[in-house]
Amino acid sequence: MDTIDLTTLIHPAIAVFFVFPLIGTVVHFAWQTRQRRLQAADQGKSKIPPASDQNT
């Protein structure tokens, strides 16, 4: 097998194990931010913390 053949075989695995979870994480944080902004616009304060650190 040549290098190009090996790369062609590994490419879908890279997409499944790296790119798709990364897209999911970005969408999750974007949705969380949108919900916080909408709640702040309606009620003035959100229960979702603006920082990801739960110890502060």
Which features characterize this protein?
mainly alpha; 1 helix; 0% strand; 56 residues
What does the model show?
The radius of gyration is 19 Å and the shape is rod-shaped. The chain has one helix at 3-43. The model has no long low-confidence stretch (mean pLDDT 82). It contains 1 helix and no strands. The protein is mainly α and 56 residues long.
> What share of residues are in beta strands?
under 5%
Give the structural class: mainly alpha
Order of helices and strands: H
Distance between the terminal alpha carbons, to the nearest Å? 53 Å
Q: Say how many strands there are.
A: 0
Mean pLDDT: 82
Helix content: over 70%
Radius of gyration: 19 Å
Give me the number of helical elements.
Answer: 1
- The coarse silhouette is rod-shaped
| Major sheet summary line | none
Unreliable segments of 5+ consecutive residues? none
Map the helices and strands:
Layout: H1 3-43
Task: Give the gist of this structure.
This protein has one helix and no strands.
